[in-house]
Amino acid sequence: MNQESLLEIEHLTVRFEVDGDVIRAVNDVSLSVSEGRTLGLVGESGAGKTTTALAALHLIQQPPGIIEEQSRIRVCGKDILNMNQRELSRTRGADISMIFQDPMTSLNPVFTVADQIAESIYAHVDCTKKEAYERALNMLEIVGIPRDRASEYPHQFSGGMKQRVVIAIALACNPKVLIADEPTTALDVTIQAQVIDLMKTLKQKYRTGMILITHDLGIVADICDDVAVMYAGRIIEQGTLREVFNHTLHPYTEGLFNSLPDIKNRKAKLIPIPGLMPDPSNLPEGCAFAPRCRYATEECRKTLPVLQPFEGTHQTACLAYSRPGEDFVLERNRAK
Amino acid sequence: MSDVILDVKNLKKYFKTSRGLLHAVDNVSFTLERGKTLGVVGESGCGKSTTGRAILRLIEPTSGEVWFEGTDLTTLSERDMRMKRRELQMIFQDPYASLDPRRTVKQAIEEPLKYNKIITDKYDRDDRTVELMHTVGLAERLINTYPHELDGGRLQRIGIARALALNPKLIVCDEPVSALDVSIQAQILNLLEELQEKMGLTYIFITHDLAVVNHFADEIAVMYLGQIIEKAEAEELFDNPMHPYTQALLSAIPVTQTDDRPQRIILKGEISSPIDPPDACRFAPRCIYATDECRASDPAFREMSPGHFVACHRCRQVGKGANEA
Q1: CATH architecture of A5-224
Q2: What's this model's pTM, rounded to 2 decimal places?
């Protein structure tokens, strides 16, 4: 982390108050992204990944959302949580951009794709409408759509092509930080491979800092440099790709790997994580994963673990490692 | 080939559209042995779901035969088919959409028993409902809850309980775990596997997830634009894929290892239109091995090694392409 951080999130805590219920969506999350690095944000639905991403663009609806006071988010050094509307619209799109999960619903059906890209350029860059349109055509080429399809409408494109348009819009103003929320989930595998390839190129060419939100550990291994695993609104393990994947520390991360079918060993039995993620409006007192954890003890149910540093940049929040007189090793690592 | 439960011959389903005939399922043939699982894989729009539905006659096939235990299902009257369908059930992709939001778990599970007049006594039906809930791992206390109170994994368990209610022999599972989180996905896959062992079920498992199908299926059929283009035992297909499309598909599976990652084959372009396809290999426009022959005639589905079928003019030359990676 000696490079300058483009995006810095510190102690982000977001709760939603709905019908008297308090939903603790994100709890004390800290992470940072620097130039040319891609952070994979992993976890199941409801873990708080998307809420974290929306907060980074200050896009959380308030109310019902409440970003608690200790939260700090800096985009290219600027405090995005205390910007006025004008500053916000200048920052979004230019400094930080987001690709949403569903390309089918994030485009406007009544404008041509080139117009939609040009709109974003015209809003952020000092140029004429014609210049913006010309740049939009270039953007289309960068994402691999031929220029002669520029005047077509979203419904004339397939899912993969629409996702390329969405990526083109997000990249049109050359943002320094890009947040991609499950960018390939709605796509077929061969098209997914094309989009991932495109994102890799962009990362190398423009040194964009990226957060890739996904539940697919295979995609993370393909494109990410760093990984943060979220569970029930907290980061429970964080480190470089190799640290987290090859020297897994948290029982939940281990559980995720065990739940995946292994292509090399097709008859290996899947080991699911029993039970469900706790309701974020009713989080347990201790470790949120304890009720599903095969290593949990009485203490885990009472005390909330905090992230502890391990080797390198690797951190995990698990009490098993601080049990006195025990040298705890996950099952996954014992075989090695 | 001793105990064939299902024999599908030249199954076709065409849809009329304003632009021509859409060949959703085009000449699909396969046999399936009792107690086995056939995985059907392919990308969206390749006709895998339509194939599953046409077999159960949830949509009427345009032509072809579907022999189930010696009866051609396509010749049955609607009434007879309804009787037969007790033995052939389906599990749907989206558990949120496939259950009636106004019915409790109990009502949902007992509906097939009631409708088919299998158990007419109310109390006996209650007993059977509870028994089914146990079978699929649903806690009895949930019997009076509504779908919106439950998570995706539990809803899919209800879908499975409904399918099991009539003691079927064959179940078509259409993307049964795609809508679920990985940790829950593994729970459901394990459940389906247990049930197969216990009840001797035969599955047609439709999915786009190759890692899942590799784990789950005995045999795999790969579909592209309405046709099966390759079919083999799961292990053989993964070790020795012959069709260029299968090779690309397998290479695109995201794997979790951080070093020595396999080389991806990136396909150009996208699936072409299934409307009035020309007499040519349908994959040719995206295929790096394609020759004039591929663009001039549709390759036959040939047995290249025992049990391994491929529809490709050039599969001898393509052969081991994927293993280089």
Answers
A1: 3-Layer(aba) Sandwich (3.40)
A2: 0.83
